[in-house]
Amino acid sequence: AASKSDVERQAEAKDKTGVFTGVHATNPVSGKQVPVFIADYVLMGYGTGAIMAVPAHDTRDFAFARAFELPMRCVVEPTDGRGTDPATWDDAFASYDAKIVNSSGSDISLDGLGVTAAKAKITEWLAARGIGEGTVNYRLRDWLFSRQRYWGEPFPIVYDEAGVAHALPESMLPLELPEVEDYSPRTFDADDADTQPETPLSRNEDWVNVTLDLGDGPKRYRRETNTMPNWAGSCWYELRYLDPTNADKLVDPDVEQYWMGPREGQPHGGVDLYVGGAEHAVLHLLYARFWSKVLYDLGHVSSAEPFHKLYNQGMIQAYVYRDSRGIAVPAAEVEEHDGGVFYYEGGKVSRLLGKMGKSLKNAVTPDEICAEYGADTLRLYEMAMGPLDVSRPWDTRAVVGQYRLLQRLWRNVVDEATGEVTVVDTEPDDATLRALHKAIDGVAQDMANLRFNTAIAKVTELNNHLTKAGGPVSRTVAEQLVLLIAPLAPHIAEELWRRLGHTGSVVHADFPVADPAYVVDETVTCVVQIKGKVKARLEVAPSISDADLEAAALAEPAVVAALNGAGIRKVIVRAPKLVNIVPA
Predict the structure, then answer these.
(1) 305 torsion bin: left (phi>0), alpha (psi -120 to 50), beta (else)
(2) Residue 400, pLDDT above cutoff 60
(3) b/e per residue, 348-382, with b = 16+ CB within 10 A?
(4) In the 8-state DSSP scheme, what is residue 24?
(5) Cα–Cα distance, 214 to 476 (Å, whole number)
(6) What is the DSSP string of 402-417?
(7) Which candidate, 53, 68, 52, places its Cα nearest to that of 16?
(8) Burial class of residue 267 in the structure, from the number of CB atoms within 10 Å of its CB (0-12 exposed, 13-18 middle, 19+ buried)
(9) Concatenated DSSP letters for 173-242?
(10) 387-401, 423-437, 548-562: which range is least confident on average?
(11) Distance (Å, rounded) from C-alpha 351 to C-alpha 343?
């Protein structure tokens, strides 16, 4: 782990790697032993660099526990109907709004509390016993607000001849940037010792040096020539978006109260969801909260926080190629030969995953992808690359997979040769209804939890089912398929929606609702564990009894081999999804 950079470890986080140290830590509440691992995905910048994993309720911890077959315990009750047995889950359940379960000890119980309240209670319990104490960790960073460039809001500040700063009166606002011919700043001239750095605005004498009457008669003043950073205007855009044409106020109080004021479940108010990369959130979110709290303290807004929930998206990365000097070379001009050896202009270069950007010469222009494959393909590929919160590498060659999905979708509705719609007004068969409603149910859950990659996978599965079935597609199925993909690929969805005979936009149509009768599987996967480790998976009927499931599990060859003649002390059956065998 120490030999890799944080960027490398985050890039490789999809495949969880680690090593058991051979030691255990004692849980101070339960007294139970907890194995200690060295894990690549745990970074020093997060907390103290050592974490207490909660695999059932953290996506990364969940993947790590699955990779190393570690036991998982549900302590936050799922609200999506998946049950409380993590062995049957596809992913972790994470929520601050759900209730605590399975968290009672000899002299403390957190059951029934919300996550935030439970954290406060266990902190008090630990402090009262001298085991630990509550603390607040700050990640501090200086805020350099001024910029020596043209683009940015000008400061409404002028300086008198004595150098004293004066704020412009409201009657002189807004202060707008002047037209300039040269936007570049001027730095020191190595050949001229008398040169001084100069901002783009400094060269505009008519704008910089002005005569103004600020209340004590006309006087000469000099304007501030630095500008505000790009964060300045974007830090409060969510407020202005509510009331963009209001010429008298930042935002009408009633409008702000309606959209962003405190309400049940959101006592601090704010926008429901804030999505941004880790770097972006640290900067923009920090500044936006600063502005919001100032406005709240001054009584201009009713929400104490600008945003209710934060979700950090991962970074899209690309390969960086460097020559023998360590200088980045254009990725588009690198050629691969001899099974993984890379060359640029005849010389061998190294390859490593990194950020995508101009300085590393590995940027991929969206315009190029859109021109060749269309904007919908680009959108789908970015969302299908992996979980939203995980960094993942860009691979232009893989874009074609989503392009083919859209091609197959089009052909399932429209005849490519004639351009005519091919759907029929007949009812779909039972298998297609099951495929349709499972897709509707799965996509709805995935979209609600920002799992766009798995939502696309479910749309693809339904579309492939229709393709393999052959023959014309039922209009009912085609329309609901278009509605499923509309949030993900809006352009082709809008076109198909119109071709299917609708005059209104697809965005105004209701999202499909799954019929529970068709969502239930004809068979379900039962996990068979021995001492908590998965040894087999069985396909069984949803209605199978505990006795029949136990018999099937004990007869499974992989289970028989794993037991190797050992006696059985106990068999725990949770039909139809779990059998846990405890050897004697």
Answers:
(1) beta
(2) yes
(3) ebeeebbbbeeebbbbbeeeebeeebbbbbbbbbb
(4) E
(5) 70
(6) HHHHHHHHHHTTB-TT
(7) 68
(8) exposed
(9) PSP-PPP-S----B--BTTBTT---B-GGGG-HHHHEEEEESSSSEEEEEE---B--HHHHHTTHHHHTT
(10) 387-401
(11) 10
Location of structure tokens 């509550």 = 134
Tell me how long the chain is: 584
The residue assigned the tokens 């782990």 is 1
Distance CA 31, CA 13 (A): 31
pTM as predicted: 0.60
The residue type at 303: S
Rounded Cα distance between 391 and 48, Å, is 22
Burial 284-307 (b: 16+ CB within 10 A, else e): bbebbbebbeebbeeeebbbebbb
For each of the domains in the chain, give its residue range(s) and CATH number, in order of start.
Answer: 6-128 (3.90.740.10), 157-228 (no CATH), 231-313 (no CATH), 316-363 (no CATH), 376-518 (1.10.730.10), 522-583 (3.10.20.590)
> Which pLDDT value is given to residue 45?
66
Pairing of strands 341-344, 533-540: unpaired
Which pLDDT score is estimated for 543?
86
In degrees to the nearest 10, what's the CA dihedral of 164, 169, 172, 173? 100
d(CA 54, CA 60): 9
Q: Please give the structure tokens belonging to residue 287.
A: 């500044």
CA nearest 412: which of 403, 404, 421?
Answer: 421
Q: Tokens representing 98?
A: 């759900």
Q: What is the pLDDT of residue 7?
A: 67
Q: In what order do the strands lie in the sheet with 524-530?
A: 533-540, 524-530, 578-583, 568-574
Residue 173 phi, psi dihedral angles, 5° rounding: -105, 155
Please calculate the CA angle 221-222-225 and round it to the nearest 5 degrees. 155
Nearest residue to 443 (alpha-carbon basis) of 434, 452, 431: 452
Q: Label residue 531 left, alpha or beta by phi (over 0 means left) and psi (-120 to 50 means alpha).
A: left
Amino acid sitting at position 191: D
pLDDT at 140: 62
Give the separation between CA 458 and CA 519, rounded to whole angstroms.
13
Tokens coding 467? 């393709």
CA-based R_g, the chain, Å? 30
Sign of CA dihedral 232, 237, 243, 244: positive
Q: Which two tokens stand for residue 147?
A: 């910029």
Amino acid of residue 382? E
d(CA 564, CA 567): 9
Among 233, 256, 234, 227, smallest CA distance to 243 is for: 256
Q: Quick count: other Cβ atoms within 10 Å of Cβ 417?
A: 6
| DSSP secondary structure letter of residue 250 | S
